[in-house]
Amino acid sequence: MSEEELVFKLLEEESKARVRRIVEERRITTEDCLVIGILRLNSEVIGLRKEMNNISMRIDGINERMDEINERIDGINKRIDGMNGRINWVIGLVLAMWATIMASLIPILLKLIGII
């Protein structure tokens, strides 16, 4: 148990006795007000810490999901890069076939016309 937790535990125990005394005597002192104020602030700080932990856990979950999405995007990019290489091959083959066909048809056409 940390020193801070120990102090607040002692304050809580003392505050219970203070509250009983305040109720019995129907009188509150400045010191009583300070102790009660400190205890209220402590409980609010504890609540804020819990809320911050919840927010931190939600952010961690979002970061994990973002990492998964980034991995998927990287996989898609790799597939697209692979397809680009294949498309270049297909375009090259089509052009080569077109050039071959033209090279064979042009002499036939010229022979029919009578130029060759």
Features:
116 residues, 0% strand, mainly alpha
Q: Any overview of this molecule?
A:
The protein has 116 residues and is mostly helical. It has one domain. Helices cover 92% and strands 0% of the residues. It is built from 2 helices and no strands. It has helices at residues 3-25, 30-113. The longest helix has 84 residues, at 30-113. The mean pLDDT is 85.
Number of domains: 1
Q: With helices defined by DSSP (H or I, 4 residues minimum), what is the helix count?
A: 2
Radius of gyration: 41 Å
Query: Which percent range fits the helix content?
Result: over 70%
- Cα separation of the termini: 105 Å
Instruction: Please identify the structural class as seen in this structure.
Output: mainly alpha
* Low-pLDDT sequence parts: none
- SSE order in H/E notation? HH
**Largest sheet at a glance?**
none
Shape: rod-shaped
Quaternary state of this entry equals single chain
